[in-house]
Fold this protein.
Amino acid sequence: MSNNNTVNNKRGVRSASARASRALGETASKRARKSVKIIPLGGLDQIGMNMTVIECDDEIVVIDCGQAFPDDSMPGVDSIIPNFDYLRQNYDKIKGVVLTHGHEDHIGALPYFLREFHVPVFGTRLTLGLVRNKMEEFGIKRVDLRLVVPGDVVELGHMKVEFIHTNHSIGDAVALAIFTAAGVLIHTGDFKVDYTPIHGGMIDLQRLAELGRHKVLALMSDSTNAVRKGFTMSERTVGHIFTEMFPQAQGRILVATFASNVDRVQQIINAAAEYGRKVVCVGRSMVNVINTALELNYLEVPDGVLIDISEMKKYDDDQLVIITTGSQGEPMAALSRMASGEHRMIDIKEGDTVIFSSRPVPGNEKSVSNVINALMQRGAKVTYEDAHVSGHASQEELKLMYGLVKPKYMIPVHGEFRHLTQHAQLVKDMGHDPRNVIIMRNGDILSLDSYSAKIIGQVDVSPVLVDGLGVGDVGNAVLRDRKILSEDGLLIVAVGLKGPRGDVVSGPDIISRGFVYVKESEDLIEGSKNIVSHILKSNYPIAPMDWNAVKNQIREQLRDYLWREIKRSPMILPMIMEVKD
């Protein structure tokens, strides 16, 4: 293992031209008698939490290790990570983790994973730079990060993985070709076909076509934009939109985007420099990513353009551009705090122009709408439809990928069920045998060989919820209680009992939190007290061993009473306390 998050490049990386062809030849003779398992631990039927297990010859390669973000049904939850139970049970089989790119939904769960699993992690330069930042943030020092570049082939046990350059909304994205004894698997990662990318060249279609000519067993392809017709616009088109918007703004310009969208940040900086504005970065994740991108030369910033937030007062409003987190309406993100007037350095004011350079992730629409309304109420002009292009392939690019690779089995990945089914229909319309199009669910164990493909079992993929420093300690019961508390409030019933017979010496007292205002509901509170008093009398004498039964009666009878009276069902918490002499 290497210390201090050092990137280790001593891993027997081979060039694709010299080694991948040999890998194809080595696997061909074994396909007839070997099978490979594909087990998605996340990323299907959802957006985010991408993680896939490839298992062959009692060896495992893990693709990505991402997190997802909670929706309104998970109050208080910070993030969601995959369930690692299957990997715990098969720890000794794991040969390494290979990363497709540096977005949170692909690397966000790595700190939790690498606390337990001391295995090498392979990724490109920017991806590992972002991973290293996360390790430092979590205080994890012993990690084995191994640098690859597109075209490299790494040996992981008997499997080999080739890294193939692609385009996405972050630099250094790659697809993966996994050479196994059963055949070649291709995993696209998140991709689109961008003929004019901001960083690096266009996707390596030639290599994908070359692999397709040698027979690919299965293609696992990004489905996020499978419902969108045509082609996805080039990232460079957003730059033209910024150069049109910036000269029209009279005051400050605030641009909200994903922190990890380095190419988008580059274009904002370019437009700011062109029109003589200084750039301020706000939000911890935004600052961290930009610092990493600067260190690795993935951002080009003219001298004097990037300034610290503390220097803003030196400049007029029409000289400033603020790049901020919060494009998804996250309550604690910088833009949300500005909109609510809680940011300690920046107040939204009349004349500000706010540009949302993103689209809401499914489930975040209401949160984003609330932030937009709050910004407008403070006098800002808000643009939220034009300054974004997707990083994912639309239908024509998905057809191109399929046509080049020509797999025996087609497996749509990365997306909700509607995305997967639409992607499946696309390739069926192109003539692919419907029997060889496989829509999987998280936890499915798919066994593949050159003759057949079938689901042979399931693994536990119950998502693990992260709340503060707690990992996995919030389950369905806790979430249910939180939801009740958030919707119906809490009613506490306090009673003090004394002696072996349980004489009532205090109470019953009724305390309402988020249920009703006590002073305006005196009849309801008095009726509740009477019910509790009647229960205590009917159970007298009350021995300590009977307290739980009495509490249950209080819950049940009060629940029925409150529903009859006001049609509400708060959480009811009876508290019986023993009073000493």
Confidence is low (pLDDT under 50) at residues 1-7, 27-31. Residues 510 and 568 are 16 Å apart (CA to CA).
